[in-house]
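Page 42, continued from yesterday. The earlier attempt failed because a stray header line got pasted into the input along with the sequence. Redoing it now with the clean sequence only.
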Amino acid sequence: MNEREVEVRAIAAERLTFFADAVIAIAITLLALDLPLPAGDSNAEVLRSAGDDWPAYLAFLLSFTVIGRHWSAHHRVFRYVTSLGGRLGALTMVWLLLQVVTPFATRVITGDGAYQARFGFYSLVQGAAGITFVLMIREVRGHTLHRSDMPPEVLAGAAAAMATLAAAFLVSIPVSFLTEQSWLCWILVPVAVGAVRRRRGRP
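This time it went through. Structure tokens are written below.
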């Protein structure tokens, strides 16, 4: 690969990173736009209205946290990425699509009825996003698209975090057919994985 091609690929990687940051910002903005406004003519009515909509506000905080975690992992990895290659570009577009779908999935999960279908759709979107990011990391590692001074734990840590996130959401789907407390899997799975990793002496 000549020097000119290396430069072109580096510019493409930088542009993709900037584009991803912009899409993430839009996804988070869409989350906020979907929040219900409290209604009422008095303080008590406004507070009561806000209390009635607490599931929507909780779903917003959850989705904001999940998107923020994705962005954090993306930021940690892609600040070392210096080139595009393999399927990294295509996988990144799939990952961004799932981030943009998250506000819609958030509206779906806060609807009434059909708990398993709504819960399963939201969890499937988040699980697919986590798996896609793990595949992105695999492309970065497999095609050596990163700087030579990148600490090895960057890719390993991001892959472990996203794999755990994906597992938490995907495991919760079959559990949702047993109990409506299946969202606890989103907390318990990462806690359990973290405990196992600490026992094995891994960061």
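Notes: The radius of gyration is 19 Å.
Reminder to self: strip header lines before submitting.
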